[in-house]
Amino acid sequence: MVDLSGSINEETTPSDIIIAVMGPTGTGKSSFIKSVTGDETIQIGSSLNSSTQEFGVYSAVIDGRRVEFVDTPGFEDTRDENSDADILQELAAFLMQTYHDRKLFNAVIYMHRISDPRLGKITKRNLRLFTKICGGTSLQNVVIVTTFWDSVNGVVGATREDELRATFFKPLLDGGARIVRLDRGVLSARKIISDITKNQPRACNYSKN
């Protein structure tokens, strides 16, 4: 099981922004958080193994408000000790704990490589579990961030994006989620976060039933 020792700051106020960042290994979760926060302690993986093995919390001040990012272990890792089901169960527990602590999330970011030509069975299964965790009105605070646009032809990327909207991400989008593009620049990442600061904080309604 993954380690939930990383926790939201006890001094978090209602005006602070809390964002969970998740997705398959290698989609750029840690790089995204590092580019926004400038935190040099965040490790960026360069192999097929996830460099994030715990739920880490990192802070930054954006548009005059403190933003806390929850970095999560990647799905579809090549190692066996942390299964995707374990990670999703622990994420659900983490989200529920923050709810009981009266700390609601402004967004749950799901990162996806637009360079992936197709989604396998494992990815589809994880998306279903993710949708269950962030179901109901909470889906309005889900932001699907597509990455690695510099690795594909623009036309190819746009075609894949349209297909994702119409198929795999459709249940999320129908529930109020939105999909945005991320380039490699800090300005692009900060723009995504600035838009998220306008979200009304919500609790995920995950149930084990």
From TrEMBL:
It comes from the Eukaryota. GO terms for biological process: protein transport. Its cofactor is Mg(2+). Keywords: Chloroplast, Hydrolase, Magnesium, Membrane, Metal-binding, Plastid, Plastid outer membrane, Protein transport, Transmembrane, Transmembrane helix, Transport. One of its GO terms (cellular component) is membrane. SUPFAM superfamilies: P-loop containing nucleoside triphosphate hydrolases. The keyword Protein transport applies. Pfam families: MMR_HSR1. It is a single-pass membrane protein. Coiled coil: none annotated. Residues 19-88 form the G domain. GO terms for molecular function: GTP binding; hydrolase activity; metal ion binding. It is found in: Membrane; Plastid, Chloroplast outer membrane. This is GTP-binding protein A. It comes from Grifola frondosa. The lineage of its organism: Eukaryota, Fungi, Dikarya, Basidiomycota, Agaricomycotina.
